[in-house]
TrEMBL record, chains A, B, C, D:
UniProt lineage: Bacteria, Bacillati, Bacillota, Bacilli, Bacillales
Protein's UniProt name: Metapyrocatechase
MF terms in GO: catechol 2,3-dioxygenase activity; ferrous iron binding
Catalytic activity: catechol + O2 = (2Z,4E)-2-hydroxy-6-oxohexa-2,4-dienoate + H(+)
Assigned EC number: 1.13.11.2
NCBIfam families hit by this protein: catechol_2_3
Length: 323, 323, 323, 323
């Protein structure tokens, strides 16, 4: 039995940089109905109303948009130790930090492409104020009355100068299972969708067609109902927030998607579907090839513009290094 | 690390007896859009269009409705061996069978209440005929054009003379995690919802208020969209199929539910929601008590009639033994 | 050609009394997303975001909940004159008023049961502030970000000591067409649904089973999407607003309904469906009889409690006069 | 009072030519769930399950796809006579025909652009076979179990060499009200949406950018639920039926649309929304200009390809005459 398959339990939170902190917070709270847990210094900690922990999104002021870090929760204290040992051996480890608001000590590392990540065990649960307590015991607070409220953090998509080594790193060192991938030519991977749970992905790795390293493609929040993406689209159009693509259905992951840009410039995906879940313990990864690409990318609905494959944060041109 | 937590991967299939085999098959195929894989002797093997295996529902002719057996798939061949050893030690083991259409050898056992179950590793995947092949690679066949097609098997609900010992058996011998429960008085459990995945339950155990042992409450198929339950309700009412309750939303499991009786007399739940998923590896089971029961059972929508708590299959009165 | 068939164009607005003006306004604005146009003295004027006129709901402080008045817009100034002449002849006319905020002079009258109504031509259109202007030209303002916003006023339901004379009055004097009705015994009408447009009803008349005269049953706002009633139900349950029944589908009018009580005590229906529309100029009214009543009242979903047939505003017991 | 405003009641049926009669019938019945009332000679008569009359779509074998005729039902026998007199005076009248299966005598005429139309009073109602009778009295038959069944005929869109004279003809001779329009430059109309009911349009007139006369753009069937367009899109993609655009939301008419080509080559729109309804008797037509065109055409979702503005049936190139 490969322990690694069960040592990472879930995506815990994501930190994003934004050059327009105030406007970004307004977008996430007023339109997407996220909740601010706390503001501290240059950061604002937020969560969706069905997220159980202290925060799932940390917005930090910065000169450019982009990824701060991605945090994974281990399955147990022992699982955390096992993974840290493995990460240290990988040469990608950076060391322990004391923690942050909402969680205890965490071990930091980077993907081969340079995306900062961390793994942790101790988390603080969200504790609602009295007037936000709900009788629905599986919901950590009342459903918000503001905007079209997202329900929970779903996944991140990271752009990579090369998909394969990053995929192998996530699989071998952290136990992510490959669920779907796009391959062109002689086994060149353009995309990989990986998960530690029945979700098709908690992380997607996507070829950065500018050739840059370590950029961020999108963070996804989950709604679960296609109608809510239409409601949100209506609000976005009326309020001048740019929809890049969608609503529409991807072949890959069967997601009913919509992509928008938050005011800081980061791409945000809204997931309006229940998609499909993978319970088969012997799942054979799905491979989409050139001849399937059209259906892979758009099963039906709004096409993706070219910028979808080129724009990430921070914004860089072809060949222009991120750092 | 407790191995048991990861040794059972998923609900593989359910066998139900029906005194009206032909009518039951018609209900599941014409109205719910299930697909017949094969008919063999007194049994018909079916699956929903997003079920990957040979079958997820086996309907077998019998004098009375009720449960044939519940089958679980192990996470690996080794996990299967570990569970069989544990089941043998439990005293609930019955021994190996050679298998059935669609799967290899399986180890049979019963719950303390007497529900026949089995655990297996080798499965046969569904192989669609040429005209049912789809370009959507995560879908094992085309979406049916018949009825309002269910997408996949979701869970089973078993009535128990006592919930607690059956819950403990599923937890200790098979690694099911307790997700939610209903408790009255001094810790008397009336219901337990358990899973091996982020689903809130693959199995629910419910107090049989007639005092009988080993009866079957319902099998649930998953739609994922509330609209589809409304579409189905429309068809059911027009075609004389009895809706027992719903559509409506449970507090427990947050399911958008509907309960109907298939012509053989077994209760079938249709799941029209994406519900919520549990990714927290340290989940504290939710306990609903007397004072919460109203919201636990019906968060909003159609109430449950008294028969919901009394009727199971086979149909028995208070104190009347099943066998 | 009967002129009367086209002289009344639409339901223009409804005035309700409430003993809890502040709480009623909060319910309609915070949860149902209605917009306050103006507050004046003891009244607050509101509209839904796709209502085109100055207001469609006027809430007025009063000692008891109940109907203030129902206002109809005529099809033209000439149509107004024709209807006033007819109303004067009917003996139900009360005379002209100068108008109110949002509309010009109006002719007042009562139904035989005593419900105060008026008919008018001149209306003031809603003029949004700059930040509420939308690019969607058929929408008078931006879609609100508050609560689950209703789209427009739909209909009123009036309780009558006897349905038939009130139905005849609405048909003969105002040109309402009978669309559906419930009849028991020897042609005793328990309910009549009438309209001047393809909607099944702008007004329903319902037997007051307490025997009282002139009471109010409900006002209905339209959402158009079943999902929104579920979203709203969620908010209502969490915030202690009582849902009387629903969501569910009526046979009569094919409406996907939900009934709630606003804090002042008046019943409000939310319409979550597109229902069906009647374009046939030679429509034969549908008659539901004893044997059809179950399907007429609930096609599927949540049943109606007994109080639905007894409770109206102001709240009165059997035989207790309204005034 | 202008009589003409109320003399036409509704769109009664549409005849389309198809070079692939069998395949067209299969598309409309198997995938869209339409019902065949009768086959007669080279024609097949169909209706959606909530259409009340004998048929709403007549498919006739022909060498090329395109419009056979559009039929309107008058509001009364007298209204029919008034309109015929008007049409005769217009010089566009062609004379009476004896009728067809499903309706009595009809007066034929053409638009200035040459689209064949007719107006009639006597219609035959659909009479379901015993096993198709439903308890839902406002539904002329049971909801079908085949495909994703459309509910009713909604509107037609006619391409015109010049919009304005055709718009004026429909307004002046038949009483259609202009609801929305697109205008470019110095009052050149590119599109006009007109209705005789609160629907935004039963007929749309659209500039034929090839300069041809009398071509057909699309027929629209109504679903009423956005989810059903997604369900249908899924079936279409899997079964090789081309989706031209959608699902998405138009600014004009607020329709949640999807455009597909039936196998004969005619464009079919599926309407998945309840849109908005116009009850204001004094409605000021909405004008969309160059600067609003983007939102007018696509409020959100899938864009329209260029062919949308060029392709009609029969298929013609720029400057190539239809006949």
């Amino acid at each position: 039995m490969k322990m690694s398959l069960y040592d990472v339990a879930q995506l815990a939170h994501v930190e994003l940089y934004t050059p327009k902190l105030k406007e970004s917070v307004e977008f996430f709270t007023k339109i997407m109905g996220l909740q601010v847990t706390v503001e501290a210094g240059e950061s604002v900690y937020l969560r969706a109303y069905e997220d159980f922990y202290h925060h799932t999104l940390k917005l930090t002021a910065g000169p450019e948009p982009g990824l701060g870090h991605v945090a994974w929760r281990a399955s147990s204290p022992e699982a955390l130790e096992r993974r840290v040992k493995e990460l240290e051996e990988s040469g990608q480890g950076k060391g322990w930090i004391d923690g942050d608001l909402g969680h205890g000590r965490a071990y930091q590392f980077t993907t081969p492409d340079g995306h900062l990540q961390e793994i942790l065990w101790e988390v603080e649960y969200y504790n609602p104020p009295e007037d936000q307590k709900t009788l629905l015991k599986s919901r950590p607070q009342k459903r918000p009355m503001q905007g079209v409220p997202a329900r929970r953090l779903d996944h991140v998509n990271l752009m990579c100068s090369e998909v394969t080594p990053n995929k192998e790193f996530m699989a071998e060192r952290l136990g992510f299972k490959l669920r779907e991938r796009i391959v062109v030519g002689e086994e060149r991977e353009l995309g990989a969708w990986m998960s530690v749970s029945p979700l098709v992905h908690e992380v997607a790795l996507m070829q950065d067609q500018t050739g840059n390293k370590g950029r961020f493609h999108h963070i996804a929040f989950w709604y679960g109902y296609p109608q809510h993406l239409m409601d949100l689209a209506d609000l976005l159009v009326e309020n001048g927030i740019k929809i890049e693509a969608g609503p529409g259905k991807h072949g890959v992951s069967q997601a009913y998607f919509m992509y928008v840009f938050e005011p800081g410039g980061n791409r945000v995906e809204l997931f309006g579907d229940s998609g499909y879940l993978i319970f088969d313990p012997d799942w054979k990864p799905i491979t989409w090839r050139e001849e399937d690409l059209q259906e892979a990318i758009i099963w039906y609905g709004s096409p993706l513009p070219e910028e979808y494959f080129l724009y990430g944060t921070p914004d860089r041109k072809v060949g222009e290094p991120v750092v």
